[in-house]
Amino acid sequence: MTVKGTLFVALILAALPSGLGMAGPSGDEVTRARLLLSRATYGARPGDLDAILAKGTKAWLEEQLEPERIDDSAVLKSLQKLENLQLSTTELMRKYPQPSRAEREAMLKARDSDEPGERKPPPRDRRGLVLRELWQAKLYRAVHSERQLQEVMTDFWFNHFNVYARKNRNTLLTLPSYERDVIRPHALGRFEELLTATAEHPAMLFYLDNWVNTKEGFDPREALRAQLGRRGGRGRRAMRDEEEKAPRISGINENYARELMELHTLGVDGGYEQKDVVEVARALTGWSVVGPQAVRVKQRIEERMGRGRMPEMLRKLPDEGSFFFNELAHDDGVKIILGERIEEYGEHTEDGASGIHEGYAVIALLARHPSTARFVSTKLAQKFVSDTPRSALVDDMSSTFMRTRGDIREVLRTMFYSKHFVEDGMASEKVKTPLELVASALRATGAKVRGAALARTVAELGMPLYLCQPPTGYDEQAASWLGAGSILTRIRFATELAGGRLPGTTPGELPTDFEAWAGEVLLRPEALPVDESLTASEQMAFFLSSPAFQRQ
Amino acid sequence: MMQNRWDRREFLRMGGSTLLLLGGAGAGALEAGDRAKPGVLVVLFQRGAADALHMVVPYRDKRYRGLRGALALEEPGKGESPTLDLGEGFAFHPALAPLYPLYRAGQLGVVVNTGSPDPTRSHFDAQDYMESGTPGKKSTRDGWLARALIELSGRQPSGAEAPSPFNAVALTPQMPRTLAGARDTIALEDFGSLARSRRESALAERLAKLYREDASASFASAGTAASRAVTLFREQNPLALPPRKGVRYPGGRGENPLKQLAQLLKSGLGVRVAFVESSGWDTHFRQGAATGSMANLLGRLSGSLAAFYEDVGPDVPVTVLTVTEFGRTVAANGAGGTDHGHGSAMMVLGAGVRGGRVHGDWLGLEPRNLYEGRDLPVTTDFRDVFTEVAKRALSLEDTSGLFPGYRTKRVGVMADRSL
Question: Which residue of B has its CA nearest to A104?
Answer without folding.
Answer: B285
